[in-house]
Amino acid sequence: MKKFTLASFNIGAASKMYNKYDPRDLDAIAAFIKDCGADIVALQEVDCGCDRSAGADMAKYISDKADYPFYHFITIRPFQNGLYGTAILSRFPVTDKKTINYKVKVAKQGTSCGYITADIDGEPVTVFNTHLSCESDAGNFDTMNCLDSELREYYSEHGRFLCCGDFNTSPSVVSENIKWVKLANKDLYTYADRSIDNVLYTKGFEISDTRTKDATTELISDHNMLLCTVSVL
Fold first, then answer.
1. Rounded mean pLDDT of 125-136?
2. What is the Cα–Cα distance from 68 to 82, expressed in whole angstroms?
3. How far apart are CA 161 and CA 117, in angstroms?
4. How far apart are CA 186 and CA 188, in angstroms?
5. Is residue 185 helix, strand or coil?
6. What are the residues whose beta carbons fall under 8 Å from the beta carbon of 229, sequence distance 6 or more?
7. Are the beta carbons of 96 and 131 closer than 8 angstroms?
8. Per-residue burial over 129-150, b = 16 or more CB atoms within 10 Å of its CB, e = otherwise
9. What CATH superfamily classification does 2-232 receive?
């Protein structure tokens, strides 16, 4: 049975230590990720070429600094002369990757999901990443419904997957609306006293040792990292 460590981490656009973007913050995030021991890391609140972050390509920079040979940046929307989105870092070779922008009805800022398929010692494993709307409950439900549709389509065509993300709502709400998947995080706080970061998974995987890594005490981010051990069945 093949096992690997998966992490989901909202990096807060590398702006929490100094109340605005600072290269030292990005270095601290990269060091934190390098130290976490995860094989695949899904990141949220990632800038690429934006004015507010001095044009930094955060996904590339972190992947280089933290020794992840493969990464995929997933655009959510254009922002400040650059792009704002999420990213997935991998120590395993990536054989496929995709970005999917939702056709939202309520969420004015939009959102997206994307995935990589990693070759884990000859076993293909697909990991999605997303960041659902925090604009309103209606906006959050709108983007969750879009995610549900995309995950269902992928599952019907390809089978098993994992989906990391900042869902901006509780595990119970996610379970009520995406009933056909399992959740790794039922009650671990990842943002203040809320459990909003999670990993969804289907048949074909077992999840164990779900845990958090503290990133908030030193203000590396306003989220703690969520980690789990994934067994490929």
1. 98
2. 23
3. 9
4. 6
5. coil
6. 3, 4, 5, 6, 207, 208, 209
7. no
8. bbbbbbbeeebbbbbbbbbbeb
9. Endonuclease/exonuclease/phosphatase (3.60.10.10)
Cα torsion 10, 11, 13, 18: sign: positive
Helix or strand holding residue 84 (H, E): strand 82-90
Q: Which residue has the tokens 């655009």?
A: 75
What are the structure tokens assigned to 100, written together? 């999917």
Name the amino acid, one letter, at 178: I
| CA angle (157 as vertex; 151, 162 as ends), nearest 5 | 40
- How far apart are alpha carbons 216 and 91 in whole angstroms? 25
What span, in angstroms and rounded, lies between the C-alpha atoms of 211 and 175?
Answer: 19
As a whole number of angstroms, the distance between CA 162 and CA 193 comes to 25
Length of the chain, in residues: 233
Kindly report, residue by residue over 5-60, the tens digit of the pLDDT. 999 999 999 999 999 999 999 999 999 999 999 999 999 999 999 999 999 999 99
Full-model pTM: 0.98
Confidence at residue 221, expressed as pLDDT on a 0 to 100 scale:
98
Asked if residue 212 has pLDDT above 90, the reply is yes
Closest CA to 118 of 68, 153, 61, 46: 68
Indicate whether 1 pLDDT > 90: no
Q: Which residue has the tokens 């702006």?
A: 15
Question: Structural domain boundaries of the chain?
Answer: 2-232
For the chain, the distance separating the N- and C-terminal CA atoms, rounded to the nearest angstrom, is: 6
